[in-house]
């Protein structure tokens, strides 16, 4: 299958899954739900959830157990976009060719829609943990608040005796680990965004620029592949190898963003070009010039592809995704 | 012990615990951490964490296992205050007698500090779940990412044989339940705040005003007592009884807030009086007048005290707390 087709299939899976979480009920806060939906379904590339799924697929076929985490990370990503666009931060009017959330609704609604999406991500994770926990306590599924350890042990033994290939305890272990990694990555993303606002109009050291981007963009991209890998129960060596790949494409993604903000096509990008310059932002382009930034971008993508060579044709999609990050026009 | 002394002891416990979570390290995002600390340690009443602890103490003595949840709910409360005070929402300049977060720092920092506190709350919960999970897998504590179900069963059996009074599995069950209730309550709080912004300058039905307050203030207060009760492993009847108490003091708290905003003492309150009127907000005072609001307040506090009569002298503090909510001057 060619890359574009596979990408589209993944995007459709993610969009279909996100749809399930949209709230359509009539309630007083309906417009707030609409505002969350507006940004969530505004046509993003779905890079983060796709990385979760594609990484998982390196090791396992049935991606179902990844879906809540794919949804959660896309919610967090959209929360960050809504807040970054606010007048108090980047003051952007357009995103994905449409008015930004505070332009479409109003500032109060945009602040709260961002808050709501961040919190929704945790609702999704909490719900999945509860679901896995209920599976462990299967005998007690109808009264899931009154479980005792004896029944639990009995259930665990039953699972074992049946030679059930999936250990629910291991499932819970890895999901609690992911909840931790998730909350830490979001913490880093927020720190990165803060540094971005602090660096506006300043010249900064290369290491500080990298520290900013590793947090701002890198943290969630690393989290994406790590969630896919951990959910697929691969080895720690694999987790670290894929983290190295994600670290490189994360930085590459940011550099490409900086390049597009300088020389992209407004019509394709769906937002004005030249804002970084206008705000006197410290970017890879302002620091190394367009050619310097492009050289660094190439180097990172080559490195990322090397990181996953070991998976051969299984990693074809992840390899093409790295190239796509370099070559994308929006 | 008299109420004020006990309240002070609880406040000191909460403040000491919060201190542990403040980040003092030198890093590029240090000012963001300072901004989170600024609001978190600005001298709030600590009502929510104290409700967690005092409810737990109705049933169990050693409050240690409550502390992460007391911290998490206070973080969420402060996140909501920072965002509510923003120019895009209530545009308040003072809180607890000090400049609001965006006045002390700037708007971008305040938005991100609020985001950071919300996310920090989940980091605290995630960390506590990981800790409990590690206890279950005690034999594997040094390699907590590589746990298999056989060891887990062995550990569970050991725990059982030792007649250990605490079942770690039950601990995990109740904490996953709390994570769910927590994220749902925060969702309700955000919805309530949204409705508050929507109702500005409008006359609304009493049922809608109650719906708003049940979400905006009520959701976290209910969550507080529910977390304390669930952690203490009391019966579902107790959980529901205490929820009824919390629902009443939550609404009472909001009505008292409305009254103070109308006739409070600015010096004691630490913020200007009359803002609700100026913004033409729909409150209990604007709807029923001062006397009407006070009558409703009295009725609610009497009802709340009745709800917990069954616990006799054990509930003395919770009873006094209800009276305190009615009589507080800030």
Describe the structure.
2 copies of one chain form a homodimer. Chain A has 330 residues and is mainly α. The first copy, chain A, is built from 14 helices and 2 strands. Chain A has a two-stranded antiparallel sheet with strand order 1-2. In chain A, strand 1 and strand 2 form a beta hairpin. Chain A is globular and about 60 Å long.
Could you list some keywords that capture this structure?
two-stranded antiparallel sheet; homodimer; mainly alpha; 14 helices
Number of helices of chain A: 14
Strand residue percentage of chain A: under 5%
For the largest beta-sheet of chain A, the strand count, sense and barrel status come to: 2 strands, antiparallel
Radius of gyration of chain A: 21 Å
Shape label of chain A: globular
User: Runs of chain A with pLDDT <50, length 5+?
Assistant: 139-147, 160-166
Q: What structural class results from the helix and strand content of chain A?
A: mainly alpha
What is the residue-mean pLDDT of chain A, rounded to a whole number? 90
Binned, the helix content of chain A reads over 70%
E-strand count of chain A = 2
Q: Largest chain interface and its two residue counts?
A: A-B, 74 and 74 residues
Topology of chain A as a string of helices (H) and strands (E) = HHHHEEHHHHHHHHHH
Could you give the order of strands across the largest sheet of chain A?
A: 1-2
Q: What oligomeric state do these chains adopt?
A: homodimer
Q: What is the terminal-to-terminal distance of chain A? A: 23 Å
Quick recap:
The structure is a homodimer of 330-residue chains. Chain A has 330 residues and is mostly helical.
